[in-house]
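Sequence only, no structure available. Ideas?
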Amino acid sequence: MLVAPVVAPAPVACGARRDVALRAHDVTMTCKWGVDGCSGLAAVVIDNCSTETVELLRVVRWQNGHPVMWDFVAGTGSFALPAGTQRTFARPIWNDGPMSFQVTLVGNLKSLTAHANAVNPARDAARAACRACRGHWGNHGMTGVLGCLCRAKDAGRVCHSRCECEGGCELRGGVGPVGRCRQYAGDKGCTCPRRSRQAAFGRRARGRGFTSSRGRSERRRAARGRVR
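Reply:
I predicted one. Tokens follow.
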């Protein structure tokens, strides 16, 4: 679990600068389980190179078009920034992509803005592999696991059961023993109708010299009739 550190104001080397500036750092995210459980720590630095103390009203982070508000109470002195100092604010992030930060100062309607980027090497590599296999990237399955479903090599081929295809067999219209292999691999599930599996088993059984359960029952009834 990431913990956002509370950083007190620290001296800053302003040189000839006499302004209040905002800086943001790029973030490299790490993942606990493959491409899931990813996180990073976004940090923004405020340099007060002016000749007077400034107070921070709020910090807003925008990522992938969505604002994330970090509110700070003004007037308590907790977030006052004396002249010649800097302060760093950090928060955990869970998604990669471009970020922008906006800081509003007390008594100043013009916001300070800085930009950064959050990269996720594990997901970038997985997305590249997904594009290579012409797959579908997203959340899949009942639990919504993030990953890729590669396009099946046998997509569209005639099939009779889900075991004959990379991604399962889909019946056209929901009836009949003949279907088509699904578009994506790894998506077999339990979606093939029972009738299709029974039909496939019957064909295999007859091919090996066996009969279906119905045929065996009829033969037993016939045998009992002959005994009587």
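Residues 1-5, 190-212 have pLDDT under 50 and may be disordered.
Hope that gets you unstuck.
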